[in-house]
Amino acid sequence: MEYNTVTLLYFSGTGSTEHAASCLERQFTERGIKIHKQNMAKISPSNVEVSDLLIILSPIYAYRLAELTESFLKKLPDGKQRPVAVLSVSGGGEVSPNTACRVPAKRYLTRRGYDVVYENMLVMPSNFATQAEPHLNLALLTVLPEKVETIINELLEGEKRLTAPKTKDRLITTFGVAEHLGGSIFGKNLYATSDCNQCGLCVKNCPKKNIKMVNGRPQFGWRCMWCLKCVYACNRRAILPGIMKSIVLKDGYDIKKMSRLAAKEPKQEAYTSKSGDQWEGVMKYLNK
Ligand SMILES: Cc1cc2nc3c(=O)[nH]c(=O)nc-3n(C[C@H](O)[C@H](O)[C@H](O)COP(=O)(O)O)c2cc1C
Ligand code: SF4
Ligand code: SF4
């Protein structure tokens, strides 16, 4: 398939999708294909660059693409039947019910006049509640360039890769929309402790503009989509959840640090896990 230009529309809460976006950008550029990398949190749908191929790249929250991504796609200008690929990024991989995570996004894109030609899942270290074993997290970063290369090859070869998730997974994804309410309640209950030094970073970087500085202390509104950016990016670790505390990883989440560590790890022939089937999707992805 001849694609001279590609627009990569991405959103990232805690940096892993951004890391994958940079990998895609690098590899398309190396192949002489012009790529426009645009962050959905920073542009409006009417400013999306028109290219030969559109790629959507988004983390999944509660079995569907992030709310910010889905809202953005619903407002895209007419796609005029241009091709689009949907790439999801998850912590758990292509297992039930994640398999249906792209279904709503594909529907919105079709309604906006796009031709969905390809979908796939990238797996990155989970930022939510629990993680696979440390060596597997690093392995996910080690194999990323290879996974991206395969995706680009398949796109350029014109492979039509579309999945048909089971009804049960589709149903669960439909109920996943309740995450919007969950995120709202979670965010309203975030608070900044006295360790806050009023640097303002969280206010500036919240993709939903949900944080305001009031009397020198960040205050959280109802617009949160629980991306966890503010929680993990605060240098003082001053933002804490008032409820659903277990979703925040105790040791934080620093994708740049993990990538530096991963760069020292050679790729292995096969990966093994001591935690049984719990990370089945990660193991399948790593050993494919
Ligand atoms: C609120 C929330 C819900 C999540 N739900 C899922 C999920 O349903 N399935 C999954 O595999 N990963 C889930 N994750 C993990 C993220 O998709 C994963 O860590 C991703 O790499 C985060 O991307 P980012 O760093 O670009 O924000 C969730 C993360 C958050 C914050
Ligand atoms: S990023 Fe942390 S230290 Fe900075 S204003 Fe927000 S809560 Fe305070
Ligand atoms: S308040 Fe924090 S968790 Fe909620 S959307 Fe903003 S940055 Fe993300």
What report would you give on this structure?
With 288 residues, this protein is an alpha/beta fold. It folds into two domains: 5-175, Flavodoxin domain (Rossmann fold, 3-Layer(aba) Sandwich); 178-247, 2-Layer Sandwich (Alpha-Beta Plaits). It is 34% helix and 19% strand. The protein is built from ten helices and ten strands. Strands 1, 2, 3, 4, 5 and 6 form a six-stranded mixed beta sheet that branches. A two-stranded antiparallel ribbon has the order 7-10. A two-stranded antiparallel sheet has the order 8-9. The longest helix has 23 residues, at 134-156. The two termini are 25 Å apart.
Q: What gross morphology would you assign?
A: globular
- Distance from N terminus to C terminus (CA atoms, Å) equals 25 Å
Helix percent band: 25-40%
* Distinct small-molecule ligands in the complex: flavin mononucleotide, iron/sulfur cluster
Low-confidence stretches: none
| CATH fold group of the largest domain | Rossmann fold
Mean pLDDT score, rounded? 96
Radius of gyration: 19 Å
CATH class of the largest domain: Alpha Beta
Report the order of strands and helices: EHEEEHEHEHHHEHEEHEHH
Number of strands: 10
Strand content: 15-25%
